[in-house]
Amino acid sequence: MTLLQSLKRSPVVHLWLLIVFFTSGLVMNCLQILILLIWPVNKSLYRWLISKVSYLYLAEVTFVSDWWANVDVTFYGKKEDYEKIGTESAMLMPNHRSDIDWLVGYMIADRNGILGTAKCYMKNDVKYIPTIGWTWWFLEFCFLRRSWDKDQSTIQKSLKALSEYPIPFLVGIFAESTRMTPEKLKASQEYAESKGIKPLKHHLLPRPKGFSVTVIALKDSVPAIYDIEVAFEDPEKANLKTLIGGGLIKTHLYLRRIEMKDVPTESIDTASQWCKELFVHKDSIYDEYVAKGRFPGDVVDLPKHYWNLYITLAWNVVIAFPVAFAVKYLIASFSYVLFIGLGAVVFVGYVMTKLLFYHADTKRGSSFGLKGKRNGESADIKKNE
């Protein structure tokens, strides 16, 4: 093991990265609050500014995948489809197989200069996570409670905001609603069979209502849907722990641009049926990956940029000075109170890191899709048809 590999696996280094991430996040949150004052006066200016400022924080996320870890992505599809990203607003329709497949979407957005306006539907609790959750709130993410009765008005409000957005954006929708696990896939397949539907081999049955409402609302302002399939050569390593440890995650990604005008949006039913048929197609695309070890289409070069590296290095330098001054003062004063306080901060940071790894683990993920399972049927699937 090289010195660099040892450093990447060091708990002390992980703690430092966490300190930098949360400290820089708090600084950005303060700046975001100031920018929020512009909202009542000029929403378009607020949205432009908040996307640019928030990138100075979100760049730390893609730094981890591009420069700290080795998320080696092979992109498949048509070059002209990839060249459209960032020049137009679009919906993303990815599969949801791991803890970090959302990060691959972030990498695409960053490499096409649109990370600050990349959004998705998220669980409501996420917005309460300090720094990153707050940043996503400032960026007008749509936070859902996974109950249509509770979420309908939230989605409508979010869609109205998106239809007014002054610059190109990406909005991601995980139509499967939850990360796939073997247990959830089995529940989905059993439900499909009970309803006389052909089960999917590699995806959970989509819950198309949210997609249908979104596509109908955005059909006049969003020209395209990007169908995305992500596969990992070693799924067990496609997690946050491997990322923070600087490990290798070999990834394959297929992207296909679909014209919005080709999606039937006459009603919820027609859009929902199209979504279901899309997942049948996605299943066949994943079949090809399983059979050949690659997705169809050409291999497309999508090089990483250096901005996320420069920004992250700058944050480390800026934050290192006050931390070094505080440590020097601590040693000079030899205050038991300060030493206890520092120890408490280190302990809390360590516990937060462990909790982050724990909750990001797919094996311990949400039971959504399994709740109320009875007689081979998932109540979550049924109520979201």
Spans of at least 5 consecutive residues with low confidence:
372-379
**Helix and strand succession?**
HHHEHEHEHEHEHHEHEHEHHH
CATH architecture of the domain at 71-304 and 358-383: 3-Layer(aba) Sandwich
Radius of gyration computed on alpha carbons: 22 Å
Q: Helix share of residues?
A: 40-55%
Strand order of the largest sheet: 4-3-5-2-6-7-1-8
Described by strand count, sense and barrel closure, the largest sheet is: 8 strands, mixed
Our estimate of the beta-strand percent is 5-15%
Count the E strands.
8
Tally of alpha and pi helices: 14
Instruction: Please identify the top-level CATH class of the domain at 71-304 and 358-383.
Output: Alpha Beta
C-alpha end-to-end distance:
50 Å
Q: Which structural class do you get from the secondary structure elements?
A: alpha/beta
> What overall form do the CA principal axes indicate?
globular
**In the CATH scheme, what's the topology name of the domain at 71-304 and 358-383?**
Glycerol-3-phosphate (1)-acyltransferase
Mean pLDDT: 86
